[in-house]
Amino acid sequence: MSDPTSDPVIVIGAGIVGAATARALQRSGHSVTLVDSAEPGNATSFGNAGFLSLDSLIPLARPATLKKVPQMLMDRTGPLTLHRPSIPALLPWMARFALAAMNPAEVQKGKDSFKPLMLEADIAWKAEIQASGLGELFQTKGALYVYESEASFQGTDEMRGLQAGKGTEFEIVDGNRAREIAPGLSPTIVRGIFYPKGSHTINPHKVVTTLAERFTAEGGTIVRGRVRGFGRDGDRVTSVRLTDSELPAKAVVIAAGRASGELTRLLGFNAPLVAERGYHVMLAPDNVRFDLPVSPPDRGLFFTPMQEGVRLAGTVELAAPHQPPSWHRADLLVKHFKDVFPGAGGEERSRWIGERPTLPDYRPAIGRAPRLANVYCGYGHQHLGLTLATATGRLIARQMEGEALPSALAACDPGRFG
Ligand SMILES: Cc1cc2nc3c(=O)[nH]c(=O)nc-3n(C[C@H](O)[C@H](O)[C@H](O)COP(=O)(O)OP(=O)(O)OC[C@H]3O[C@@H](n4cnc5c(N)ncnc54)[C@H](O)[C@@H]3O)c2cc1C
């Protein structure tokens, strides 16, 4: 029988959240094993838009989003769609989303928790970029949100108020100034918000693989295998069962992205995650004259200059797990790009689909699992997993040391779904 105090902490999932958490735990002095059924960074963390969205201060579960849902669903080229065969499976999640978005107390919890999360994320990314030698993969060139009507710009009032309260620097610009910041923008853009301190990565996949390399270089172990169960002793998990082996565990972190709910079920608690599918298309950067992430929020996507071309990434397709991709959604990204940057972009180099792991209240689950002494959670990061990964890792590491999480983060308690 193994000595539990010398057993490793097992982190399940080597996406951006698991890899960053493994690094944070390693730095806290734990022996850590990172387990994944695939190579690090090959799932949702592979293909995101690369933006550190540190000023997203209101979760999407809010009245303004709910109000737009019917109109978005009617627009076949719009930012939101439902994967039709999945609709029956999606109904319970959609009902929970609507309830969370309509409940002022829940919306307030979201706002109260996102500010400390984002402040922590800012500090945590700066530290991790330094500690893991990620400097060449990140650029701080700002970010630009662009609007095709005054009305849609006015819809950002509340967000800008919260950002001003946090001390975020931003400049409200007219169409001409927006075209100076991002040359090639269409004349249909009438407004923009420029965030001069915005940072992005030019290779999200490499960020994860570099974290994984540094993790092993500094003594961490990576095991390839699918987690299928757990050994238990009362309220403690003592081992993690893979298909043909069993790893003793001092503690466990569930960071398995969209599949986390399958693991929490085995441990007796609920993580009602949906696959919020998004797509990307990489284009050769012909005629691309902007060097910062640009987002037309009404279209629901980002255009990010990256190492291997310009990445068009985003939109939402709610789906049950394991459904075939709807590649026409990727074609739409190209159409949006051509509308917003007419004449820019060369041949298509690749396309990709990813599953954002999304809980109905659009708050992540961070912290100790309900009714279990040594299981921790880091999942449900929806559109913000890159942004919040390092903060998640540091918060879990601190909680494992016995520190209480900031009280506003009770809103992200993994036990809130029972
Ligand atoms: C189009 C798009 C654009 C995006 N843009 C941004 C952005 O600009 N900024 C931002 O902050 N976020 C963005 N996101 C969101 C972000 O990519 C995700 O929130 C993030 O990648 C989730 O990371 P994760 O580590 O939780 O999950 P994943 O990357 O999915 O990793 C989970 C890992 O767990 C493993 N796993 C699952 N089950 C098991 C099991 N039973 N046993 C072993 N291993 C298992 C999987 O193999 C996988 O490697 C975007 C997402 C999409 C789709």
Bound ligands, named by name, code or SMILES: flavin-adenine dinucleotide
Helical content stands at: 25-40%
Which descriptor suits the 3D outline?
globular
Label the structural class. alpha/beta
Largest sheet geometry: 6 strands, mixed
Task: Name the CATH superfamily classification of the largest domain.
Answer: D-Amino Acid Oxidase, subunit A, domain 2
- Arithmetic mean of pLDDT: 96
Gist of the model:
Helix content is 33%, strand content 26%.
Description:
- The chain is an alpha/beta fold.
- It folds into two domains: 4-45 and 206-272 and 362-417, FAD/NAD(P)-binding domain; 66-102 and 138-199 and 273-358, D-Amino Acid Oxidase, Chain A, domain 2 (2-Layer Sandwich).
- The protein has eleven helices and 21 strands.
- The protein has helices spanning 16-27, 63-74, 87-102, 104-131, 150-154, 157-166, 175-181, 204-217, 260-266, 328-340, 385-400, and strands spanning 9-12, 32-36, 51-52, 80-82, 138-140, 143-147, 171-174, 191-195, 199-201, 221-224, 227-233, 236-242, 246-248, 251-254, 274-283, 294-295, 301-306, 309-319, 348-358, 365-368, 375-379.
- A six-stranded mixed sheet has the order 10-2-1-14-21-20, with helices on both faces. Strands 4, 15, 17, 18 and 19 form a five-stranded mixed sheet that branches. The chain has a four-stranded mixed sheet with strand order 7-8-6-16.
- Helix 1 runs parallel beside helix 8, helix 1 packs parallel to helix 11 (385-400) and helix 4 crosses helix 11.
- The longest helix is centred in the first third of the chain and has 28 residues, at 104-131.
- The relative contact order is 0.21.
- The model has no long low-confidence stretch (mean pLDDT 96).
- The protein binds flavin-adenine dinucleotide.
